[in-house]
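Troubleshooting log. The previous structure file for this entry was overwritten by mistake, so regenerating from the original sequence record. Sequence copied from the archived sheet and checked twice against the printout by T.R.
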Amino acid sequence: MNVDADLHIHSRYSKAVSKLMTIPMLAENAKFKGLHIVGTGDILNPQWEEELLKYTRKVEEGTYERRGIRFLLTAEVEDAKRVHHVLIFPSIDAVREMRERLKRYSSDIESEGRPHLSLTGAEIADLANELDVLIGPAHAFTPWTALYKEYDSLKECYGSAKIHFLELGLSADSQMADKIKAHHRLTYLSNSDA
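Regenerated output below.
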Protein backbone atom coordinates (compact mmCIF):
# COMPACT_ATOMS: atom_id res chain seq x y z
CA MET A 1 0.00 0.00 0.00
CA ASN A 2 1.35 3.40 -0.97
CA VAL A 3 0.61 6.21 1.49
CA ASP A 4 1.55 9.84 0.93
CA ALA A 5 2.18 11.79 4.11
CA ASP A 6 3.61 15.08 5.35
CA LEU A 7 4.57 14.65 8.99
CA HIS A 8 6.26 18.00 9.63
CA ILE A 9 4.03 21.04 9.36
CA HIS A 10 3.26 24.01 11.59
CA SER A 11 0.14 25.67 12.93
CA ARG A 12 -0.65 29.35 13.19
CA TYR A 13 0.89 29.18 16.68
CA SER A 14 4.41 29.03 15.23
CA LYS A 15 6.28 32.13 14.13
CA ALA A 16 6.15 33.01 10.42
CA VAL A 17 3.12 30.79 9.71
CA SER A 18 -0.14 31.98 8.18
CA LYS A 19 -2.96 32.73 10.61
CA LEU A 20 -5.14 30.76 8.16
CA MET A 21 -3.35 27.51 9.04
CA THR A 22 -6.24 25.63 10.68
CA ILE A 23 -7.22 21.98 10.95
CA PRO A 24 -10.10 22.35 8.43
CA MET A 25 -7.78 24.14 5.98
CA LEU A 26 -5.08 21.49 6.39
CA ALA A 27 -7.57 18.67 5.71
CA GLU A 28 -8.96 20.42 2.64
CA ASN A 29 -5.55 21.17 1.16
CA ALA A 30 -4.08 17.77 2.04
CA LYS A 31 -6.79 16.12 -0.04
CA PHE A 32 -6.09 18.56 -2.91
CA LYS A 33 -2.36 17.69 -2.75
CA GLY A 34 -2.98 13.93 -2.69
CA LEU A 35 -1.90 13.36 0.90
CA HIS A 36 -3.46 10.64 3.04
CA ILE A 37 -1.78 11.49 6.36
CA VAL A 38 -0.71 14.83 7.82
CA GLY A 39 1.25 15.44 11.00
CA THR A 40 -0.53 17.85 13.29
CA GLY A 41 2.65 19.79 13.94
CA ASP A 42 2.79 21.96 17.07
CA ILE A 43 0.67 19.51 19.10
CA LEU A 44 2.54 20.50 22.28
CA ASN A 45 0.73 23.86 22.04
CA PRO A 46 -2.46 23.50 24.13
CA GLN A 47 -4.55 25.78 21.88
CA TRP A 48 -3.60 23.70 18.82
CA GLU A 49 -4.42 20.48 20.68
CA GLU A 50 -7.85 21.94 21.53
CA GLU A 51 -8.46 22.83 17.88
CA LEU A 52 -7.42 19.37 16.71
CA LEU A 53 -9.86 17.71 19.11
CA LYS A 54 -12.65 20.11 18.10
CA TYR A 55 -12.37 19.56 14.34
CA THR A 56 -11.45 15.87 14.10
CA ARG A 57 -12.64 12.53 15.38
CA LYS A 58 -10.39 9.94 16.98
CA VAL A 59 -10.10 6.82 14.82
CA GLU A 60 -7.29 5.03 16.67
CA GLU A 61 -4.98 5.85 19.55
CA GLY A 62 -2.86 8.77 18.35
CA THR A 63 -4.73 9.06 15.03
CA TYR A 64 -7.48 11.54 14.20
CA GLU A 65 -9.47 12.15 11.04
CA ARG A 66 -11.24 14.93 9.21
CA ARG A 67 -12.89 14.40 5.82
CA GLY A 68 -10.85 11.30 5.04
CA ILE A 69 -7.49 12.82 6.01
CA ARG A 70 -5.69 11.19 8.93
CA PHE A 71 -3.76 13.32 11.40
CA LEU A 72 -0.85 11.95 13.45
CA LEU A 73 0.25 13.77 16.60
CA THR A 74 3.53 15.55 15.81
CA ALA A 75 5.62 18.47 17.02
CA GLU A 76 8.95 20.12 16.44
CA VAL A 77 11.06 21.39 19.35
CA GLU A 78 14.24 23.44 19.49
CA ASP A 79 16.98 22.39 21.91
CA ALA A 80 19.44 24.55 23.86
CA LYS A 81 21.82 24.71 20.86
CA ARG A 82 19.03 25.73 18.41
CA VAL A 83 18.88 22.24 16.85
CA HIS A 84 15.38 21.14 15.83
CA HIS A 85 13.87 17.71 16.55
CA VAL A 86 10.63 16.13 15.27
CA LEU A 87 8.45 14.17 17.69
CA ILE A 88 5.70 11.69 16.74
CA PHE A 89 3.39 10.84 19.65
CA PRO A 90 1.51 7.56 20.26
CA SER A 91 -1.40 9.22 22.08
CA ILE A 92 -2.83 12.49 23.32
CA ASP A 93 -1.92 11.35 26.84
CA ALA A 94 1.75 11.15 25.78
CA VAL A 95 1.46 14.69 24.36
CA ARG A 96 0.10 15.99 27.64
CA GLU A 97 2.70 14.15 29.72
CA MET A 98 5.52 15.46 27.51
CA ARG A 99 4.15 19.02 27.72
CA GLU A 100 3.92 18.79 31.50
CA ARG A 101 7.48 17.49 31.85
CA LEU A 102 8.89 20.09 29.45
CA LYS A 103 7.26 23.11 31.15
CA ARG A 104 10.20 23.56 33.53
CA TYR A 105 12.62 23.66 30.56
CA SER A 106 10.65 26.07 28.37
CA SER A 107 9.30 29.57 28.86
CA ASP A 108 7.13 29.39 25.73
CA ILE A 109 5.67 25.86 25.55
CA GLU A 110 2.17 27.18 26.34
CA SER A 111 2.27 29.91 23.68
CA GLU A 112 4.68 28.95 20.88
CA GLY A 113 4.06 26.25 18.30
CA ARG A 114 7.74 25.29 18.18
CA PRO A 115 8.87 25.56 21.81
CA HIS A 116 12.43 26.40 22.80
CA LEU A 117 13.87 24.03 25.39
CA SER A 118 16.87 24.37 27.69
CA LEU A 119 17.70 20.68 27.10
CA THR A 120 20.21 18.87 24.91
CA GLY A 121 19.19 16.62 22.05
CA ALA A 122 20.13 13.60 24.18
CA GLU A 123 17.94 14.78 27.08
CA ILE A 124 14.98 15.33 24.76
CA ALA A 125 15.51 11.90 23.17
CA ASP A 126 15.72 10.21 26.58
CA LEU A 127 12.41 11.77 27.61
CA ALA A 128 10.81 10.89 24.26
CA ASN A 129 11.92 7.27 24.55
CA GLU A 130 10.62 7.07 28.11
CA LEU A 131 7.16 8.11 26.84
CA ASP A 132 7.27 5.92 23.67
CA VAL A 133 7.48 9.02 21.48
CA LEU A 134 9.35 8.63 18.19
CA ILE A 135 12.12 11.20 17.72
CA GLY A 136 14.52 12.21 15.00
CA PRO A 137 16.44 15.25 13.84
CA ALA A 138 14.45 17.76 11.79
CA HIS A 139 15.79 18.81 8.36
CA ALA A 140 19.15 17.35 9.38
CA PHE A 141 21.27 19.09 6.75
CA THR A 142 19.86 22.63 6.64
CA PRO A 143 22.40 25.24 7.74
CA TRP A 144 20.53 27.14 10.46
CA THR A 145 18.71 24.85 12.89
CA ALA A 146 19.80 21.35 11.95
CA LEU A 147 21.78 18.62 13.65
CA TYR A 148 24.71 18.86 11.24
CA LYS A 149 25.09 22.62 11.65
CA GLU A 150 26.05 21.94 15.26
CA TYR A 151 27.34 18.36 15.49
CA ASP A 152 29.55 16.06 13.44
CA SER A 153 27.47 12.95 14.14
CA LEU A 154 24.16 11.63 15.43
CA LYS A 155 25.98 10.22 18.48
CA GLU A 156 27.46 13.62 19.33
CA CYS A 157 23.94 15.06 19.50
CA TYR A 158 21.94 12.18 20.95
CA GLY A 159 24.56 10.19 22.85
CA SER A 160 23.30 6.65 23.36
CA ALA A 161 19.62 7.65 23.16
CA LYS A 162 17.59 5.85 20.50
CA ILE A 163 16.39 7.87 17.54
CA HIS A 164 13.89 6.45 15.07
CA PHE A 165 14.26 8.38 11.83
CA LEU A 166 16.19 11.13 10.09
CA GLU A 167 14.24 13.91 8.44
CA LEU A 168 16.09 15.05 5.34
CA GLY A 169 13.87 17.98 4.48
CA LEU A 170 12.89 18.66 0.89
CA SER A 171 16.28 19.97 -0.19
CA ALA A 172 18.49 17.07 0.95
CA ASP A 173 19.53 14.10 -1.16
CA SER A 174 18.83 10.64 0.29
CA GLN A 175 21.70 9.05 -1.65
CA MET A 176 24.14 11.58 -0.21
CA ALA A 177 22.69 11.12 3.29
CA ASP A 178 23.13 7.37 2.89
CA LYS A 179 26.89 7.82 2.53
CA ILE A 180 26.98 8.37 6.30
CA LYS A 181 27.12 4.87 7.81
CA ALA A 182 25.29 5.84 11.02
CA HIS A 183 22.22 6.65 8.91
CA HIS A 184 21.87 3.13 7.49
CA ARG A 185 19.67 1.89 10.34
CA LEU A 186 17.29 4.86 10.11
CA THR A 187 14.20 5.55 8.03
CA TYR A 188 14.47 8.74 5.99
CA LEU A 189 11.58 11.20 5.98
CA SER A 190 11.11 14.15 3.65
CA ASN A 191 8.47 16.60 4.82
CA SER A 192 7.47 20.12 3.90
CA ASP A 193 8.10 21.91 7.24
CA ALA A 194 5.30 24.19 6.01
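Residues 92-102 form the longest helix (11 residues). Archived copy saved in two places this time.
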